[in-house]
Structure formats: structure tokens, C-alpha cells
Design goal:
- By secondary structure, the chain is of the alpha/beta class.
- It has two domains: 13-315, 3-Layer(aba) Sandwich (UDP-N-acetylmuramoyl-L-alanine:D-glutamate ligase); 324-473, Rossmann fold.
- 35% of the residues lie in helices and 26% in strands.
- The strands form three sheets. The chain has a nine-stranded mixed β-sheet, sandwiched between helices.
- Helix 1 (54-63) packs across helix 7 (262-275) and helix 7 (262-275) packs antiparallel against helix 8.
- The longest helix is centred in the middle third of the chain and has 15 residues, at 209-223.
- The radius of gyration is 26 Å and the shape is elongated.
Length: 474
């Protein structure tokens, strides 16, 4: 989204609960094969330890400047102590419930020439400390603005439904990164963030985007999710909500080096954005940008606010519409930085060269072009039962594909008058042979200190003429 800046609200506080993991990396060179077995010999040069699982989520939150508490179960061992030292150094407040009967979950990776040769996992999922974990969670949740549940299926969140229910009771948003072949325990989650493979395990395979959206909306309804964010690797991510059009974020083009922990970064940036009062549309845009950055780094890693802001222009457009309330939030943010808002409206049923040139001219008048489009019922009332040719979602995607358009918002009335009065653009633009006094909303914009501009349409370019040509050929 153009001109939107990621600026976390440092006063917000995040609670991360889940499976805490110590990631170990053993680096070395391989130049020969062992005489004992057909395996490479690694001459170890150095060893590195990093926070993984829920601990990596907490580090990602901390790197964005917010206060974060981390709660989870570890062993009562040196691995737990070393992990706490790593986290405390990065301003993460640790609340480890230590279980003497199990080791701290550890993933040990042998790496040579930037390639992972083997991974050794040390874990025990059977813990007796889940009730102690829930008791501590109930204590900590009183002082936070948002909760992240990071489920790596290592045993800490076996009773995840209890954690969700308590957050719901306190009206605190709860985001869940799932790791299960049964999503039922995640019912009533605010946002669920499965990757595409995890999503397909639950809903089955799909062949088209329409199938993806249909299955996603059904899952939202069944589990009573506010939103479902499916991360899809090189296909970006898709935000699905039951009663709203989907939002597609295309993958930000970067060289993929390592996808380890990318989901941790996504849910951390998403939570920080929501806690900082950004709309969900904008929050997912930030998360998508962050995901494109973190996969360039090796191993479990995090990103900074500066990195995200420097790369936002690679992912500045939403591929759908926003409602008027979220549009107002976006516009206010743009206006606070001294930018001018231009607004125009129309059905934009079949977009042609006349539309493209008109929108380019409108965009040149100010800094941010907002296009308001009639919803399908409104178009039908204005144009007849045979219209629209393209539904609302398709029209919005095409408009967002134009470099001149910064934001698309819909309205369901016959005219955009109420929307204009709600959004208060600096300049209202209309195409055609209108006189200023004939333009709906012109009086309000002028009274509010704004401007009204009439741009002529190109002759011969119209949706009506295009439809006539098509009908004549048939």
C-alpha cells in the first residue's frame, strides 16, 4: 500500500505462548567421505545457538520494538538456561515452566557450505506441566494487548482451546499458528495462520483460487474465525474472511535462502500491527513484506521496522477492496503526513483505455488516488439486470492492477454521496461533460475547503460501445 509506513505502537504489549525450542547450528567444511559409511565428514568450525519455535516469535516481536512476554515449558537443564540468556539479551521477558522429566526441545542442524546435511531433534511431548502453564497464562494475560499461540506440536499447547477461550473472555485478540491435522481446538481464534500444506490437510486439495476461497470461508464459518491467513510460499498469502472479499498479497520478489521460521515472522508482524491499531488489510501487507525479507536470511531470524519500511514499495498494493471504515483509517494516516487525497467513482465494469488514461490524469492531481466503485446490486439498479459483466471482486482486482490507483473502496448506495461525506477527499474528480454543480458530492467537498475537477472522457471509448461491438459480432 503506497505511502503507508509501518510504525509500531511501542506502548503495546504482546504475550507469546507455545513450544519453546533451542535451535543449534553446527557449521563446518566437507571435503571427503567417511571410510566407515557412505556419509560426508564435517570438520566443525563453529557452533551457533538461536531461539526457535515460540521463542523465535517472541524475538521477532521484540525486534519490532514492543514489550513481549514469552511463556512455555522447557526442561530443567542447561539448554533452557542458555535459551533464556539469548532471549533476555534481546529484551524478551521469559516465563519458563520447567519440567524435570523432559529435555528442552532442541533442533541440532549440521550445516556445510550453506546446506543443511541433517537435523537431530531432542524432544519429549509428554509433560505434566500444562495446568501450571495455563495458571501462569491467566496471570499474564491481564496485562497484554494481544496473544500469540505458537503451536509446534511439541506438547505445550495440548489444551490450546482453554487458552483461546480465556482470551475470548477477556476480549483480547488471539492469533494462532497451527500445527495439527485437526483445527477444531482452534475454534473462536481471531486469526489462524496455517501454511498452504497445513490448510490442505484440513480442507482437502483445491485446483482453483475460487475453490481455495470457498473452502477457506467455510472453515471460517465452521470454526468461528474472524479471519484466516493462508501463507503460500512463492504465491504470497491470502486473507480470507466469511463475509468479506478475499485479499491476495503477491509474494515480494526476493531470493529465497531459507524458509525456516518464516511463519514465526508473519504472525509476529501481524500481531504487532494489529496491536498498533493498523487495519487487518494493512497488517497482512506488512507481514507479507516481512516474510519476503526473512527468507533471505539463514535459519531462524527476525526483521526490523526499518527493513520492512525500506521494502514496503515492493508490496504496496492490496488486490481487493476495503470497506469504508478501513479506508478512513488509511486515508487519515496518509493525510497526517501532509499528502492530498483524490477521489473518483464509477462502476468500472469493463475497464478500457479511456478509463486508464482518465485515472492516470486523476492521480496526477494529488498524492493518493481513491477509487470508489458501485457494488453489484448498485450497478444492476443503475445499468439494468444484465450488468455488471464483471463482479465486484474482479473489478477491484483489475483496478488495483493499475499503477495510478492507490486504494479501492466500495459503496452500496446508488450514489457515492454518503461515502464522499464520510471520507472527505481533498479533491473530487469526475469524468465526462458534467458541470460542477451537477456532480454529486461537489458542494460538500467545496464547503469543506476541497477542490472539484472535471476531466473529459476520450470520445469513442466506453463500456457501452464495447458491449455493442461484442453483440454485433455475435
Amino acid at each position: 500500500m503506497q505511502d503507508i509506513i509501518f510504525k509500531p505502537q511501542n506502548s503495546a504489549k504482546v504475550l507469546v505462548v507455545g513450544d519453546i525450542i533451542l535451535d543449534e547450528y553446527i557449521y563446518g567444511e566437507t571435503s571427503r567421505i567417511s571410510p566407515e559409511a557412505p556419509v560426508p565428514i564435517v570438520r566443525v568450525d563453529n557452533t551457533e545457538e538461536r531461539a526457535g519455535g515460540a521463542a523465535n516469535v517472541a524475538l521477532n516481536v521484540s525486534s519490532l520494538g514492543l514489550s513481549v512476554d514469552l511463556l512455555g515449558i522447557t526442561g530443567k537443564d542447561e539448554s533452557s538456561d542458555r535459551l533464556k540468556k539469548i532471549l533476555t539479551k534481546q529484551n524478551v521477558t521469559c516465563h519458563f515452566i520447567k519440567d524435570e522429566s523432559l529435555p528442552t526441545t532442541t533442533k541440532r542442524r549440521i550445516v556445510s557450505q550453506h546446506q543443511q546435511l541433517i537435523r537431530l531433534d531432542y524432544e519429549n511431548k509428554k509433560t505434566t506441566k500444562t495446568s501450571s502453564l495455563l495458571d501462569k497464562y491467566i496471570e499474564l494475560i491481564e496485562k497484554v494487548d494481544i496473544v500469540i499461540l505458537s503451536d509446534y506440536a511439541k506438547g505445550s499447547l495440548l489444551g490450546v482451546d482453554s487458552f483461546i477461550k480465556y482470551a475470548n473472555k477477556k476480549n483480547i485478540p488471539v492469533l494462532v499458528d497451527p500445527k495439527s491435522d485437526d483445527f477444531t481446538p482452534y475454534k473462536n481464534t481471531t486469526i489462524l495462520t496455517p501454511n498452504e500444506k497445513e490448510f490442505e490437510v484440513i480442507v482437502g486439495k483445491y485446483n482453483t483460487e475460487d475453490e481455495l476461497i470457498k473452502k477457506g470461508k467455510l472453515l471460517c464459518k465452521e470454526l468461528k474465525l474472524s479471519a484466516l491467513l493462508v501463507t503460500r510460499g512463492n504465491k504470497g498469502m491470502t486473507l480470507i474472511r466469511d463475509e468479506k472479499p478475499p485479499i491476495y498479497h503477491h509474494a515480494v520478489t526476493h531470493e529465497v535462502f531459507d524458509v525456516t521460521g518464516a511463519g514465526d515472522t508473519v504472525i509476529a508482524v501481524l500481531a504487532v500491527s494489529i496491536a498498533s491499531n493498523f487495519s487487518l488489510e494493512i497488517a497482512t501487507s506488512f507481514a507479507n513484506t516481512a516474510a519476503g525479507l526473512v527468507v533471505e536470511k539463514f535459519g531462524t531470524a527476525s526483521v526490523t521496522v526499518d527493513e520492512i519500511n525500506k521494502n514496503l514499495n515492493d508490496n504496496k498494493k492490496l488486490s481487493t477492496i476495503v470497506d469504508r471504515n478501513n479506508a478512513l483509517k488509511i486515508i487519515q494516516d496518509i493525510r497526517d503526513r501532509g499528502k492530498t487525497i483524490i477521489m473518483t467513482n464509477g462502476c468500472f465494469d469493463i475497464i478500457h483505455t479511456g478509463h486508464v488514461r482518465y485515472l492516470n490524469k486523476a492521480r496526477s492531481i494529488g498524492d493518493f488516488l481513491l477509487v470508489a466503485i458501485n457494488d453489484d446490486d448498485s450497478v444492476k439498479r443503475l445499468k439494468g439486470n444484465s450488468r455488471p459483466i464483471n463482479n465486484l471482486e474482479n473489478r477491484a482486482v483489475v483496478l488495483n492492477g493499475l499503477s495510478s490507483v492507490d486504494l479501492v473502496v466500495t459503496f452500496n448506495e446508488d450514489t457515492p454521496e454518503k461515502l464522499i461525506e464520510f471520507l472527505k477527499p481533498d479533491t473530487l474528480v469526475k469524468g465526462g461533460d458534467y458541470k460542477e454543480e451537477e456532480i454529486i458530492g461537489a458542494d460538500f467537498v467545496k464547503r469543506s475547503g476541497g477542490n472539484v475537477v472535471v476531466l473529459p472522457f476520450e470520445k469513442g471509448n466506453s463500456t457501452t460501445n464495447i458491449l455493442k461491438k461484442i453483440n454485433n459480432k455475435e
